[in-house]
Specification:
The chain has seven helices and eleven strands. With 241 residues, the chain is α/β, with parallel strands linked by helices.
């Protein structure tokens, strides 16, 4: 995926992501008992604006975090979030790399892959799972999401988030088209409005895969990883058996 795809959302990313954040935070809490910070750093793959990185640093005081974020715009948001917390600076590294270009440590204490797994084709997905299986300690875990819809289908334009700050409102509208049994093409429009007047309008199009949970569970199981649902229909734990 082109790293610049996220530039369209970066102007108010956390506002546009706000509707998804409570479920993500609840899933992260479920991951915490499966983290093994003594084994190695926690990977935040596709760290975005750094919300999950910050949550890890806040909740796991002995953790070191290795955040991978190839998008320049998103990386700037993550570094701005971290900059205000100098007590974190020795515990976090933000790399401008994607998963396959990064130099990964031999052992990790856990991983987060939210909004990420669908950017990998089946071969890449298998490679990511294999790398996690090789690096996670026994009982260690990773958090991932399998985004809706579970099977590719036409998604009519719909507002997925709305927020207001002062006199301005922010809206996100998404639609999608199926391409094959996993792949969908998404178009997302990000709006900033003053009343009905559009101040800014940015649109991004990208391809994203929607593998069936049973498919990911089978692929993970072949590598000694167990995929367990967290019950919200979106988030899953990968646990090293």
């Amino acid at each position: 995926m082109d790293a610049d795809t996220y530039e369209a959302a970066a102007g108010a990313y956390d506002l546009f992501a706000m509707s998804h954040r409570p479920a993500q935070e609840a899933a992260l809490e479920r991951l915490l008992p499966r983290l093994r910070p003594e084994a190695g750093p926690i990977l935040d793959i596709g760290a975005g604006s750094g919300a999950n990185t910050a949550a890890l640093l806040e909740r796991v005081p002995d953790a070191h975090v290795l955040a991978l974020e190839p998008s320049r715009a998103m990386r700037a948001l993550a570094l701005s979030r971290i900059a205000g917390r100098p007590e974190w600076h020795e515990r976090v590294t933000v790399l401008p790399d994607d998963f396959f270009s990064a130099s990964l440590p031999a052992r990790i204490g856990g991983a987060i892959l939210t909004g990420v797994i669908g950017h990998f084709d089946p071969g890449e997905r298998a490679a990511v799972l294999a790398e996690l299986a090789a690096r996670l300690p026994a009982g260690g875990g990773a958090l991932l999401d399998l985004q809706h819809p579970e099977r590719p289908r036409r998604v009519e334009p719909a507002e997925f988030t709305a927020a207001a700050i002062g006199g301005l409102s922010y809206r996100g509208i998404a639609e999608a088209w199926p391409i094959d049994t996993e792949l969908m093409r998404w178009r997302v429009t990000y709006l900033c409005l003053e009343g009905e007047r559009v101040l800014t309008e940015d649109t991004a199009e990208y391809l994203y895969r929607h593998p069936a949970p049973a498919t990911v569970a089978r692929e993970a199981g072949e590598l000694g990883l167990r995929l367990a649902p967290l019950g919200d229909g979106t988030h899953w734990i990968l646990e090293r058996e």
